[in-house]
Design a protein that fits this description.
single chain, about 160 residues, mainly alpha, 6 helices, about 70% helix
């Protein structure tokens, strides 16, 4: 626990904040597992187009999870130790495989919906920490920037190409 760092947290209950951060940590863990499961099942064009982006997503999500875990520890908390609780703690209702893992659009539409849900969750916690915990605020802002960039990439990939004649 970072004693001097804890004094920088104003108006927030550290236990509640660590619980909220742990929920995001669990979301990242579910996201990692989903991306690996989809990558494992890709066929056809989707395997060629999406394999590397899914592996990059895993690397980015692992980094986010590590950073969240470090902040939770600084605040005197601990991450969820039981992987069977990740889905419930992440506040995701379910995790689904795309209808067709050979269709890049089907995979991307599901990924986009989950990325947007994550952006909402990170944004809500960022709003609650703004001005009350500079360290957590900076962490969430940084991760949120990555999430928005991922959302933009997915949306771009789903946008039909414009042909000019």
């Amino acid at each position: 626990m970072a004693t001097a760092g804890m004094r920088l947290v104003h108006g927030l209950e550290p236990a509640e904040l660590t619980d909220d951060l742990d929920r995001l940590y669990c979301y990242e863990q579910v996201s990692i597992h989903w991306a690996r499961a989809v990558d494992n099942r890709l066929t056809g064009l989707a395997a060629f187009v999406l394999g590397e982006p899914l592996r990059e997503h895993v690397t980015l999500a692992e980094g986010h999870a590590q950073r969240l875990a470090a902040r939770i520890a600084q605040l005197g908390g601990g991450i969820t130790p039981d992987p069977t609780q990740f889905l419930e703690r992440s506040q995701l209702a379910t995790v689904q495989m795309p209808d067709d893992t050979s269709d890049p659009s089907a995979v991307l539409r599901y990924a986009l919906a989950q990325e947007q849900r994550a952006i909402d969750s990170y944004g809500q916690l960022l709003d609650r920490t703004r001005g009350l915990d500079a360290v957590t605020e900076q962490l969430l802002t940084s991760i949120l920037a990555d999430k928005v960039a991922q959302e933009d990439e997915i949306e771009s990939a789903l946008t039909p190409a414009v042909t000019t004649t």
